[in-house]
Amino acid sequence: MKQTRSTIITCAITGSIHTPSMSPYLPVSEEETVKQAVGAAQAGAAVLHLHVRDPNTGKPSADPELFLRVVKKIEAQTDAVLSITTGGSAKMSVEERLEAPTLIGPELCSLNLGTMNFALHSMAEKPREWKHDWEKPFLTSTKDGFFKNTFNDMERIIKDLDARFGTRFEFEAYDVGHLYSLAHLVDRGIVTSKPFVQFVMGILGGIGADADSLMLMKDTATRLFGNDIEWSALPGGRAQMPLCTMAAVMGGNIRVGLEDNLWLGPGELAQTNAQQVRKIASILAELHQPIASAAEARQRLGIRAGS
């Protein structure tokens, strides 16, 4: 009998989408981010996807020194793979987004596969008491903005980080066309290793978070890159647990975390990232689906020793 392939769980700790007024549990400070990241790793996450925030306002930050402190503290407490964002926020320039990765020299980075409408404005329409004056304008401005990730930007990030540090990438595909963009980068020899593709589902401006969309992304990726591709599902909001379960059953990997979804279940805010990791790990255990260790994740993602 063929052994079931283990599932790599990624946990995205805080991100740059949600704002502090949406949940009191969203990590903001350096200490909160570190504590929640370590807790997620202990709960079963092999990969930790990291952003940082201004500790006073909770606004997404590109501060490379803050990133470095957070990374060093997490590394001292867990062997999880640390995936540093190169996306940061749609409000940041590519230069700002690269400051932390070029200081840290990470083994894994996220990389967004195309310029897109990254629309969060509907999140500002829900009545709420705002803790900070930046939050609502930050969200509403996305109705008339876009997230810049040109081919030149992508090539620059890949070539720089791979050549200098041997960094591997979590390629974030928000729609089917992004998979063809990745295929172009592979065909041109810009991407030289087996891709690790993250299907980002549920952002307004990208593909929806539903079962048909997941099947379409998987089928397209398989056709373009082959059956042995490493792929992962990142469903936002309420679709997180159902589609992560579906992806794991299909042989894929999964991503959870407060960056993508603030809730544990209907009407119940997740109080920690670890709660979401434990929930999906429990579901996978019921399905007799093994969970990958950090060492397994490094081997399968082609992360070089010492990177």
Automatic annotation (TrEMBL):
InterPro entries for this protein: Aldolase_TIM, BKACE
Domain of life: Bacteria
Cofactor section: Zn(2+)
Alphabetical keyword list: Metal-binding, Transferase, Zinc
Entry's Gene Ontology molecular function annotations: 3-keto-5-aminohexanoate cleavage activity; metal ion binding
Name of the protein in question: 3-keto-5-aminohexanoate cleavage protein
Species of provenance: Mesorhizobium tamadayense
